[in-house]
Write a structure and sequence with these properties.
The complex is a heterodimer of chains A (about 60) and B (about 220). Chain A has about 60 residues and is mainly α. Chain A has 3 helices and no strands. Chain A starts with a helix and ends with a helix. Chain B has 6 helices and no strands. Chain B starts with a helix and ends with a helix. The chains are: A mainly alpha (about 60), B mainly alpha (about 220). Chain B: This is Heme exporter protein C.
Chain lengths: ~60, ~220
């Protein structure tokens, strides 16, 4: 857990470094922390998708027997 | 659960690519801005499609050798799943192109090549359905598939490289060269590619198993 927080911090700090040039990036959104909501939403969708694939797999397995 | 480790691996890899892809550092480039992150999600669709088409060709060759109907079913379901990934690649590409290149379908050799390749594979699926007799259908479809694959490779990966294309990897600059991908991006990108390939293969096996069940049921009734 500690490692992952450190990794997250690293990600963030390197983003700030990158953002010092003039080109517009979504750093404002990220520094306010709200990009994490999007990441969580995507992960939720993906988790449900994966779970449904597993359930489908199991139903087919039952049919095969 | 013993045999499904690779399915879990695929899900975990794509999930980590979603996190790393949205939060990780990317090069700051004009025009592209944050859309450079699309590389993590748009390009793996094509890698998954390519893998599935390759699997399909292998089973088509196997069918011609063995005459086993299972090999024909494997080939067709690999193409079915590949077409699904192709559609996702086309749509995500159109969204991305609209922002960066100004229109969803600029006149680009890679885009037009992919359109022809897509039509070629759709024709494969239509051709199969048009033939009634099982053995004949399997044989003609297998031969068609073996011819379609190299043409698809030429249209998507060779011809665009020989002319100027909007896509990276054309007109002299290398695909995934230092300009469009730096070392922060590479690990996330390859994680995403392998993850999506695994998920694609998983969907393909599910479709094949269903097709096999349907086939058995049809033969009994």
């Amino acid at each position: 857990m500690k490692n992952s927080i450190a990794a997250l911090f690293l990600f963030l700090s390197s983003n700030v470094l990158f953002a010092q040039e003039e080109i517009d990036m979504a750093t404002g959104l990220r520094s306010s922390g709200k990009i994490y909501v999007v990441v969580l939403v995507l992960l939720t969708i993906f988790a449900v998708l994966g779970l449904s694939l597993f359930l489908l797999d199991r139903r087919i397995k039952k049919l095969e027997k | 659960m013993r045999k499904s480790w690779w399915k879990i691996l695929g899900l975990v890899m794509v999930a980590s690519a979603i996190v790393g892809g949205l939060l990780g550092p990317v090069p700051v480039l004009p025009i592209l801005h944050e859309t450079i992150r699309n590389v993590y999600f748009h390009v793996p669709m094509w890698f998954a499609m390519l893998t599935l088409y390759l699997i399909s060709v292998i089973f088509s060759v196997k069918y011609l050798n063995s005459g086993k109907i299972e090999h024909d079913l494997l080939a067709v379901e690999a193409v079915n799943t590949g077409v699904m990934f192709c559609a996702m690649g086309l749509f995500t590409g159109m969204l991305w192109a609209n922002i960066t290149w100004g229109e969803p379908w600029p006149n680009d050799p890679k885009l037009n090549g992919s359109a022809i390749a897509t039509l070629m594979y759709l024709a494969y699926l239509v051709l199969r359905n048009a033939l009634e007799e099982e053995q004949k259908r399997a044989k003609i479809a297998a031969v068609y598939n073996i011819f379609a694959f190299p043409v698809m490779i030429v249209l998507l990966y060779i011809l665009p490289k020989m002319t100027d294309s909007l896509h990276p990897g054309s007109g002299g600059n290398g695909t995934f060269g230092d300009l469009d991908m730096n070392n922060h991006m590479r690990p996330v990108f390859y994680t995403s590619v392998i993850g999506w390939i695994l998920i694609g293969v998983w969907v393909f096996t599910l479709r094949y198993r269903l097709r096999l069940l349907e086939n058995k049921k049809n033969q009994i009734s």
